[in-house]
Fold this sequence. Notes:
This protein has 13 helices and no strands.
Amino acid sequence: MSVSPPPSAPSPSRKSELPWGSRWLGVTGLLAPxxxxxxxxxxxxxxxxxxxxxxxxIRPGDVVIPSGIDxxxxxxxxxNLRVVLRSLKLALGTTGLCLxxxxxxxxxxxxxxxxxxxxxxxxxxxxxxxxxxxxxxxAWIAILRPTGVLNSVLGLVGLPGLxxxxxxxxxxxxxxxxxxxxxxxxxxxxxxKLDRQLLEASADLGATPIQxxxxxxxxxxxxxxxxxxxxxxxxxxxxxxxPELLGGASSMTVARLIYNQFLGQTPNWGFGSALSMVLIFxxxxxxxxxxxxxxxxxxxx
Length: 301
């Protein structure tokens, strides 16, 4: 009785034996849908915006003839530069406030809350995202207006009322409320993977809770802090609804300035495109810094 030999396992080098054309077609087939999506919805529109940014005083229907960087130089004028700096300050303030408020919440849900309640608590915290951002902003108008809920509560406890609607603090409050769930979600994902043995070892060695927090918890969660901060910074830098409805005329931001250049009473598509390119460059720079220093911090851990 003869015994047939068992089928041999596929050789690791079998992939390299495939014809070069088959491998090329396989890779192309996998990358084609995403590549086409990026080409049509990201690369081509960005190139069109860059081309328009090189045309001064262009309006709808004009012939596109790039002729210089006058629009970019106009973006550096003091008035426009103040708008850019105000947008950066609002974005940085929103990022800092979301990190300050979101870290304790994410820490409590990830490490201290009962295991069976964590998913429900996380769901409840992100539940406001299921409603329209426009409705949430109008709710803040009802709270912050001079005769709103906030001043009514302050009056009941004998404190003077606040007049912050149509001012930068109202924009900061609205943007922080809108983007706080994103920060909490990312921080929770990072803190949930925290090595608890390190926390126990730190306590056994006599470290105080504050020392453990700054020497173990914060370094271990740095990638989550960086990713959450970047996401909040990018979205708040391009936010339009909160500055428009809560900030009034004194809180002009880059997003509102771009809107005015395209859909305002005196459109100037070239200058609006130049401002858009500046915004794209700022966001790309932030992402590049995260990829460089985020990866290095993760490697050092």
